[in-house]
Amino acid sequence: MRDGNFALDGLVGSDLAGTTATVVGTGQIGALVARMLWHLRCRVLAVDPCPDAGLVDLGIEYVDLAAGLAQADLISLNCPLTTETTHLIDAESIATLRPGVMVVNTGRGALIDATAAITGLTSHRIGSLALDVYEEEEALFFEDRSDQLLDDDVFARLLTLPNVIITAHQAFLTHDALAAIAETTLRNVRDVVSGRPFDNTIR
Question: E-strand spans in the chain?
């Protein structure tokens, strides 16, 4: 728009309704994502060792990871980083994806093997990739590096791809979310000092 280019070439999108969305991790955030996708009339599959009864009541089906990845048109990663979830999306799992799948990672950077993702993108196995996190983000994010040379070749390659959107781990960055984080932290400190078990639920 700023450049005055109002052509529609290359801007044809896809409806979410009728697609299969797989949500990996259905804790507080993942459950909300699953509900939103359900309201957008997706068929929603969920992957989590602890199923959410409320999601099951909606008709959301819990499946294992392999089944969830293989059936997905959209994959949303919302799980914590553990030994089991590190490089959840790697060369082996990418080979099982439907061609053109959209992958969204707002969980932790190391859930995705970025090098394998680039191969998936250039082979069109992954149709698009949206990242708010990146495995090597500590050396990049939260600073103005516009006057520096980018020495992360994998990240630099991701930035060149037209079907990749990257934000610098800022999905949490709202006034409301920051206030909720502060309130939860202070409540937990009070609970520990008082000898009560702490509740990390963000209200």
Answer: 20-24, 43-47, 61-62, 74-77, 101-105, 126-131, 164-166
Span 41-79, pLDDT tens digits: 999 999 999 999 999 999 999 999 999 999 999 999 999
Q: What are phi and psi of 118, to 5 degrees?
A: -60, -45
Catalytic status, residue 35: no
To the nearest whole number, what is the mean pLDDT of the chain? 92
| Catalytic site includes residue 169 | yes
Report the predicted TM-score, pTM, of the whole model to 2 decimal places.
0.86
Q: Per the residue annotation, which of 35, 43, 135, 169 is the catalytic one?
A: 169
Annotated catalytic residue, options 2, 108, 125, 138: 108
Structure tokens at 143: 């600073």
The fold of 20-135+153-170 is Rossmann fold (3.40.50)
Q: What is the pLDDT of residues 8-35, one digit of tens each?
A: 988 888 899 999 999 999 999 999 999 9
State both tokens at 202.
């963000």
Residue ranges covered by each domain of the chain: 20-135+153-170, 172-203
Q: How far apart are CA 200 and CA 183, in angstroms?
A: 10
Supply 112's token pair. Answer: 């995705």
Region 109-123: mean pLDDT is 97
136 catalytic residue (yes or no): no
Q: Report CA dihedral (177, 180, 181, 185) to the nearest 10 degrees.
A: 180
**Model pLDDT, residue 16:** 94
